[in-house]
């Protein structure tokens, strides 16, 4: 604004000088110089004021960026603490289940361990519904293990397989854990469908696989497999009705926790994944270690 006014004054002064008799032009030129100097001073003050305002805005932006960074770090720390607490809670619940009194199983001298297992397997195969048979098999495995321990033959079996049944379309929030609600297999009860995570009941080398179907309503999905709050695998899809899949092999100590969660949302567009059994999460113990 000051620059525009200065240009107008110079233009008018030039016209006025040209129309003034030669004897009076010196006085007009002196007046013009004085006015131009005043306008230059005002313009300089305005520039200085604007520079100070920009500097103040820069300080405020830097302060807000630091506050945002601190909040992100605090959120990540709280998330890690929450994961550890959930892992500890699941471990304590598992210990409570394992320490409850169980019915002893005695092996008679006239029947071998293999005969007992064959008899139980035959009972399972007689069931008409496959899913129910699988669940009954999971319930009998601890008994089989105790029978083998009684005869000196140890068995270590840990594994789970679960599916997302409901809702039909699940809209994920940022960092939301996927609760695969339909538990088909859960040997040693390591998977917790209430919180969507697996807690290692024994130390060992494990394999985990997740396969998630993106619905036609979404165009981008970025999920991760997390161990104790640390990302160990990525599931990605950028097309509707496309699967994101990942398998990881991990060393776990007793109480370590593994889960599948949403990593972030693209431009606040939450991904929608398919239920109805199309999205799954599974894992099993490859070998124990002490």
From TrEMBL:
<feature type="domain" description="C1q">
    <location>
        <begin position="153"/>
        <end position="290"/>
    </location>
</feature>
<dbReference type="InterPro" id="IPR050822">
    <property type="entry name" value="Cerebellin_Synaptic_Org"/>
</dbReference>
<keyword id="KW-0732">Signal</keyword>
<dbReference type="InterPro" id="IPR001073">
    <property type="entry name" value="C1q_dom"/>
</dbReference>
<protein>
    <submittedName>
        <fullName>C1q-related factor</fullName>
    </submittedName>
</protein>
<dbReference type="InterPro" id="IPR008983">
    <property type="entry name" value="Tumour_necrosis_fac-like_dom"/>
</dbReference>
<feature type="signal peptide">
    <location>
        <begin position="1"/>
        <end position="19"/>
    </location>
</feature>
<feature type="region of interest" description="Disordered">
    <location>
        <begin position="100"/>
        <end position="141"/>
    </location>
</feature>
<keyword id="KW-0964">Secreted</keyword>
<dbReference type="GO" id="GO:0005576">
    <property type="term" value="C:extracellular region"/>
</dbReference>
<dbReference type="Pfam" id="PF00386">
    <property type="entry name" value="C1q"/>
</dbReference>
